[in-house]
Design a protein that fits this description.
418 residues, alpha+beta, 10 helices, 25 strands, elongated
């Protein structure tokens, strides 16, 4: 077969396939654009699993009327200007691929207005071409309406799941960015029914409550308490919430990671969190955590995946250590620390085995005090090993613990009987 240059429409649809995998991909790109535009309110509406309708509206900065068409040209972007900017990405989007990719495989309506403009601009695009342009009324911000997704690429429709499954993927995207940006008010409508609504008051705990429910929210512990967060000497800072050991799941779906507030999938970070819970939850169970890792933009490469869902760290060990230590500190710091209290003098008292005799007073005539007793439970411990088949060696918040297995077993039996 002879070598030939592909038609521009074919090239656009091939390129769109790298960015627009499913309806949730469209929602992700549009939500990220809204966040980059400084939106404080983002509304998402889908119907028919996102194939029939996807509508994302925001109150961000909007697009100037003179640049509306330019926004749909491939690799047109306001977020970077040269190769040097790729070394320090500060925005969620930067390639200029989202809007043209969506327009290549769907019908797109856009109404946008900047705060300085007297009126907005309405564009209608089909197969990537502008079919209509006219003035339109709108408050500052942008509304993107996507209809008939993959209508011109029916082969892609065959690989989509059921509408219910696609709706769940959309809900996952909106939920993750609601956790990443608790200061933004998110609403999600699926087939006209409200699925998610966040307050946007800036409290991560509120977002967790709205996304996961009260039971999970009650069991979350603060990671990196305070404005500064947990920061390593390497400059890696970790903040967020992690569930108590009792808050766990059968899979890793409860782990949410954000790198400079970008939602990512990272095996490295998952391993770091699981290592922090080692010895605290059962094998086969996984924790719930919502963590934002902040580090200098030049220390992370976000340009390694078409959907920008994976990143590469310059110093993986520093990031791993920072996350593991921050979560572990939160876990052991919230557990009870054993305290020592003196017991009152023991005198004769009835017993199932007879009567206890009082302690013999010392020469001074005062009754002797019994030895101090532990009155609180042990903190969360990480088991390190066993010595001589009789002692458990564990790590705790105050150092090394040696536990007599025989005595521990007797105490467990005593508590059961009592």
């Amino acid at each position: 077969m002879a070598i030939r240059v592909l038609d521009g429409k074919v090239v656009s649809q091939i390129a769109a396939g790298e960015v627009v995998e499913r309806p949730a991909s469209v929602v992700k790109e549009l939500v990220e654009n809204a966040l980059d535009a400084g939106a404080s309110r983002i509304s998402v509406e889908v119907a028919g699993g996102g194939v029939s309708l996807i509508k994302v509206a925001d109150d961000g900065g909007g697009i100037p009327a003179g640049e509306a068409e330019l926004a749909f040209r491939r690799h047109a972007t306001s977020k970077i200007s040269g190769i040097q900017d790729l070394q320090s990405i500060h925005t969620l989007g930067f390639r200029g691929e989202a809007l043209p990719s969506i327009a290549a495989v769907a019908q797109v309506d856009m109404v946008t207005r900047t705060p300085a403009a007297a009126s907005g601009t309405h564009l209608l695009l089909e197969d990537g071409a502008v079919m209509r342009r006219e003035p339109a009324g709108r408050s500052p911000g942008t509304t993107l309406t996507v209809r008939h997704l993959f209508g011109s690429v029916p082969a892609r429709l065959k690989f989509l799941k059921t509408a219910a499954t696609e709706n769940r993927h959309v809900a996952a995207v909106v939920s993750q960015y609601a956790l990443a940006y608790p200061g933004v008010k998110f609403t999600l409508l699926v087939n006209g029914r409200s699925v998610l609504e966040t307050s946007g008051r800036g409290q991560l705990a509120e977002s967790v409550l709205e996304v996961y429910g009260a039971e999970v929210a009650r069991g979350m512990l603060a990671v990196g308490e305070g404005d500064g967060g947990w920061e390593e000497p390497s400059g890696v800072r970790v903040q967020g919430l992690a569930g108590a050991p009792s808050v766990n799941r059968t899979g890793r779906g409860g782990l949410s990671f954000f790198i400079n507030r970008r939602w990512v999938s990272s095996r490295l970070l998952a391993r770091a969190v699981e290592e922090a819970y080692h010895g605290l939850i059962m094998t086969g169970r996984y924790p719930v955590a919502v963590l934002n890792v902040t580090l200098p933009p030049e220390e992370v490469d976000v340009n390694i995946h078409p959907a920008k869902s994976e990143v590469r760290f310059r110093n993986e060990s520093a990031v791993f250590s920072a996350v593991q230590r921050a979560v572990r500190k939160a876990l052991v710091g919230q557990m009870a620390v054993p305290s020592v209290a003196e017991a009152a003098p023991v005198y004769a008292a009835p017993s199932a085995y007879g009567t206890l005799t009082p302690p013999v007073p010392p020469a001074g005539g005062q009754p002797a005090r019994p030895p101090a007793l532990f009155t609180a439970a042990l903190p969360a411990l990480r088991v390190l090993g066993q010595v001589l088949g009789s002692y458990i060696v564990a790590e705790g918040p105050d150092g090394l613990y040696l536990i007599d297995q025989h005595a521990a077993h007797e105490r467990v039996r005593f508590d059961v009987l009592r």
